Amino acid sequence: MTDEQTFASLLGKAAIAVWGDMPRDIQEALFETAMRNRSELRRDLAVLLHERHPRTQHPAKPD
Q1: Contacts (Cβ under 8 Å, ≥6 apart) of 9
Q2: Domain locations in the chain?
Q3: CA-CA to 20 of 20 to 30 Å: which in 12, 32, 39, 53?
Q4: In this predicted model, what pLDDT tens digit does every residue of 10-48 receive, in sequence order?
Q5: Angle at CA of residue 38, ends 5 and 4, nearest 5°
Q6: Is the pTM here over 0.85, yes or no?
Q7: CA–CA distance, 61 with 1 (Å, rounded to integer)
Q8: What is d(CA 14, CA 38) in angstroms, rounded to the nearest whole number?
């Protein structure tokens, strides 16, 4: 029987693969859920996703 870690890894890889096709609210919900209690990894995951899917970059904040 396959364990939960295997399924989590498969789902994570699938989410990364289709990230750019997801609506922004879904992206944000997944990102925030994944990063809960993992603030030290936020930037690294954001960089990975933005490098693979440039259109997901957030617009610059107004001054």
Answers
A1: none
A2: 16-55
A3: 39
A4: 999 999 999 999 999 999 999 999 999 999 999 999 999
A5: 10
A6: no
A7: 48
A8: 21
